């Protein structure tokens, strides 16, 4: 495991920090030690080589999550995080956004440069105001008309 990542996690644990930045560390997996940081509210894991998010399923207080520029295809482990407000998942291998469809607190989704074709699951997000889906092979964008609070849509 990356020594720098472990040091940052240890510091976060010691000081009970609410923000942890593990971006640009060439991580291929999320360190299991992160599961003890149950108070964490913001987490950045961007610009790594991560594909598996299962380690994050226990971090249910995170409201801002950055996972951009990784190798993620499955968002399933995030489906139980009912406090999520902002998620950055651009430049991954994501094709299915349905795990996000249950996160009613979501306000902002940045998901450009993926393989997203269907956005139907997003219409159940009553608080969504910002949605960036540029550079995705989306088949039907008209369904997004149901998002009444949406202020900014990038397709």
Spatial order of strands in the largest sheet: 1-2-3-4-5-6-7
Query: Helix segment count?
Result: 1
CATH class: Alpha Beta
CATH domain fold name? Leucine-rich repeat, LRR (right-handed beta-alpha superhelix)
Question: Any guess at the CATH architecture?
Answer: Alpha-Beta Horseshoe
The string of secondary-structure elements, in order, is: HEEEEEEE
Shape: globular
Helicity level: under 10%
CATH superfamily: Ribonuclease Inhibitor
Q: How many discrete domains?
A: 1
Mean pLDDT: 95
Radius of gyration: 15 Å
List the uncertain runs.
none
Which secondary-structure class do the elements indicate? mainly beta
In angstroms, what separates the terminal alpha carbons?
Answer: 38 Å
- The total beta strand count reads 7
Q: Report strand %.
A: 5-15%
Biggest β-sheet strands, sense, barrel = 7 strands, parallel
What can you see in these coordinates?
The chain is mostly beta strands. It has a single domain (3-154), classed as Leucine-rich repeat, LRR (right-handed beta-alpha superhelix) (Alpha-Beta Horseshoe), CATH 3.80.10. The protein contains one helix and seven strands; from the N terminus they run H-E-E-E-E-E-E-E. The longest helix has 13 residues, at 3-15. The chain is globular, with a radius of gyration of 15 Å. The mean pLDDT is 95.
List keywords for this structure.
155 residues, mainly beta, Leucine-rich repeat, LRR (right-handed beta-alpha superhelix), 8% helix, globular
């Amino acid at each position: 495991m990356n020594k720098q990542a472990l040091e940052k996690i240890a510091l976060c644990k010691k000081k009970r920090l609410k923000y942890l930045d593990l971006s640009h560390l060439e991580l291929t997996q999320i360190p299991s030690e992160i599961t003890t940081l149950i108070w964490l509210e913001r987490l950045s894991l961007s610009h790594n080589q991560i594909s598996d998010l299962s380690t994050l399923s226990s971090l249910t207080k995170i409201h801002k999550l950055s996972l951009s520029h990784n190798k993620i295809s499955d968002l399933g482990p995030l489906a139980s995080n009912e406090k999520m407000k902002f998620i950055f998942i651009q430049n991954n291998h994501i094709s299915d956004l349905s795990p996000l469809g249950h996160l009613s607190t979501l306000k902002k989704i940045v998901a450009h440069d993926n393989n997203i074709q269907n956005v139907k699951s997003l219409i159940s997000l009553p608080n969504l105001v910002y949605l960036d889906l540029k550079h995705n092979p989306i088949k039907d964008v008209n369904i997004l008309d149901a998002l009444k609070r949406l202020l900014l849509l990038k397709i």
